[in-house]
Amino acid sequence: MTFADQIIQFNLGLHFEGVLPAGIRMMNPFRENPEIVPIMQQFYKKFYDDKQPRQLILGINPGRLGAGATGVPFTDTKRMAEKCGIDIPGFKTHEPSSVFIYDVIDAYGGLKKFYKQFYIGSVCPLGFTALKAGGKEVNYNYYDSAALIKAADKFIIASLRQQLKWNISREVCYLMGTGKNAVFFQALNAREKFFKEVVPLEHPRFVMQYKSKTKEDYIDKYLAAFTAHH
Fold this sequence. Notes:
Blueprint: H1 3-13, E1 24-27, H2 29-32, H3 36-48, E2 54-59, H4 67-70, H5 77-82, H6 96-108, H7 111-117, E3 118-122, E4 127-131, E5 137-140, H8 146-163, E6 168-176, H9 180-192, E7 197-201, H10 204-210, H11 215-228
Parallel strand pairs: 2-3, 2-6, 6-7
Antiparallel strand pairs: 1-4, 4-5
Helix pairs in contact: 1-3, 6-10, 6-11
């Protein structure tokens, strides 16, 4: 099996059996939106159809506009079409985090070079949403409540163990999110010994929302971290 086959099999097999806190919904794009599956398959077959080792970059959990729309973390429909050459008819999503990640990829040397070295996943591979007053669904992170962390813990650990059976380096894991995501994951890593080192980096959404004027500095920071541990 190639790296692509393993990722595709993993994504299609994702299933959460825990009990979620009231008002929180699990978002599984692969089961909810059948049209996402061929897009996700095309993407991984295009960039991961080999047996090369990869370094792992982890986000938090999929959001509605990125992986929730394309099946690929930090890749909205716009980047999927313009950068990856995979067109998604019917709907368009724009996710600021995706803009930042593809800026990093360009600065690193382009898609082929980047995806040959890195695999982007999530601490929790399925996303969550909460209902706001008026019935609007919003993204919710696994760490946004103690009850959800407790509900998702087993699933998070089992999913990571499964992915680490692939050709993924255990030397270092790059973690997007220097706040709660880092606190949770560094404690988890200390307990489970997944990686020798965890390197937290500012989350793309944080950069785009609060630091967009100095975005280049954060791109440089990502590149410096990648080079230091390569």
